[in-house]
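Pasting as-is:
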Amino acid sequence: MEYKKPLPTPTPISKKYWEAAREHKLMIQKCGDCGENVFYPRAFCPKCMSSNLNWIESSGKGKLHSFCVVYSTGYPEFREDVPFIIALVELEEGVHMLSNLVECKPEDAQVDMDVEVVFDDVTEEFSLPKFRPLKSG
């Protein structure tokens, strides 16, 4: 089945992030000068403006910082998905990521709940990182 939703447009800066996601690895950047963890991918550290950014693998675990449940959308490609949860996740490494919360009913979503990354292989080229409630065990 053909994927009909928008796909990312990798840039030279974000290319490594998307390549790693395809391998089901969640990567963030770390500043080699001040030690700041950085997400979204960028050319300069937002704390010290250094261009000495390196890629590190995130644990993929974090907390649901905030969320919104979408019950209606004007975008036809997303209509069959409603309701869905747009999630702002704070990773253990301290950065925030905007994504989706999956495998969770809207009424079960709670701020500060533990979450973990899962990857949605939407095409051969792209795996999208999403989050689900952390499974114990």
